[in-house]
Amino acid sequence: MKPAQTATAARLSRLRAGFAAREIDGILISEASNRRYLSGFVGTAGYLVISNGGAVLATDSRYVEQAGRQAPDFRVERIKAGLDWLPRLAGELGISKLGFEADHITVTQHGRIRDALKEAPGAGKLSLVPTSGLTLELRAIKDASEMALLQRAIDIGDEAFDEVSAQIVAGMTEAEVAWKIEMAIRERGAESISFDTIVGAGPNSALPHHRADDTVIRAGQPVVIDMGARYQGYCSDLTRTIVVGNPDAQFKRVYDTVLAAQLTAIEAVVAKMSGADCDKLARSVIEEAGHGDAFGHSLGHGVGLEIHESPGVGPNSKGLLLDGMVFTIEPGIYLPGWGGVRIEDVVVLERGKARVLSHARKHSP
Ligand code: ZN
Ligand code: ZN
After folding, report:
1. 321, 312 in Cβ contact below 8 A?
2. What pLDDT tens digit does each residue of the chain (365 aa) get?
3. Which residues, listed in sequence order, are joined to residue 198 by a DSSP beta bridge?
4. How far apart are the CA of 103 and the centre of ligand 2, in A?
5. Residue 239 C-alpha to ligand 1 middle, in angstroms?
6. CA 99 to ligand 2 centroid distance, Å
7. Are 214 and 174 in contact (CB under 8 A)?
8. Domain boundaries, given as residue ranges, for the chain
9. Which among 333, 221, 329, 207 is positioned nearest to 268, based on CA atoms?
10. Global pTM value
11. Which CATH architecture is the domain 141-356 placed in?
């Protein structure tokens, strides 16, 4: 029986299928998440050189053994400082037009690569071609192994929220709540939080990127909690807005509007809609309620190995949302001096529709 193809072998096939359109016959991968995605190698240093027929992971002595274990579809090559190995390896792999990740390589690194090619024997046979977004586009569509890891990261975040939110009382500080969340996430097997936890109480909740500080949580104020877990590399992202004690009338109005905007987008988003059109689904609900100016950020973003990745889901996101894409839907309304409300869930597009992956409790005013 033919052994099942590994996840990384399937990803390499999809990557190679994109070579022709970019007029390359090989690619140098240096960006850390792309390197991990394509090879399985989680070390922090190394390059992938991938041609139509070969795949090499070049890394230094610290990582050779780990790379051999984690990247079964790659030949591991031990390298030293410098780049003289690159033209040799590209030659061995039969590469003449080598793509590189133009969005991730610095001008200095680009100069070093160019110099290494210039100084190599047989210089001139290999040209460097800037590429953009090739691996990111693949990463936007999640495979089964990624979905399992994402769901676990999301479940951990949901459980941590449900546990900690039930313990929040007036008089606690934002930082205390953030620490409890971090502990609850780690206790459930996550390797870390996926970004610095946001706990914004009262007026702080009107600042979408407020970090938890010594602000004391008071009864009746909105508290925005935006948090996530990282599990085996994959990130979750969850926002809930709660009130300790009794909310004011403003809260009920604002909360109901944000929730309606979120549920409208979840219900109405369909595959092959642009990110911009998805954003509009929620934004129009908030605009109709008279709060258009108070929703200053994008509706959502892709999530995976990074907390923000493709696809884009904002007013300028022209790319299409497709089956297999995982992204957040997180409308908000922020009223300076009073506070804000944001509600965020992660969804996956399946058979043309959104399926919600987050299950943390939502406040019902
Ligand atoms: Zn978030
Ligand atoms: Zn988010």
Report:
1. no
2. 555 788 999 999 999 999 999 999 999 999 999 999 999 999 999 999 999 999 999 999 999 999 999 999 999 999 998 898 999 999 999 999 999 999 999 999 999 999 988 887 777 789 999 999 999 999 999 999 999 999 999 999 999 999 999 999 999 999 999 999 999 999 999 999 999 999 999 999 999 889 899 999 999 999 999 999 999 999 999 999 999 999 999 999 999 999 999 999 999 999 999 999 999 999 999 999 999 999 999 999 999 999 999 999 999 999 999 999 999 999 999 999 999 999 999 999 999 999 999 999 997 64
3. 226
4. 22
5. 5
6. 31
7. yes
8. 7-139, 141-356
9. 329
10. 0.94
11. Alpha-Beta Complex (3.90)
- Whether 162 and 180 have beta carbons less than 8 Å apart is answered as no
CA 49 to ligand 1 center in whole angstroms: 34
The ligand minimizing its distance to the Cα of 194 is 1
Ligand closest to Cα of 342 equals 1
Give the distance from CA 30 to its chain's centroid: 18
Q: Tell me how far the alpha carbon of residue 269 lies from the centroid of ligand 1, in angstroms.
A: 19
Distance 297 CA to ligand 1 centre (A): 12
DSSP H or E stretch at residue 146? helix 144-165
Superfamily for 7-139? Answer: Creatinase/prolidase N-terminal domain (3.40.350.10)
Q: How far is the CA of 93 from the centre of ligand 2 (A)?
A: 40
One fold for 7-139 and 141-356 = no
The rounded Å distance from CA 145 to ligand 1 centre is 23
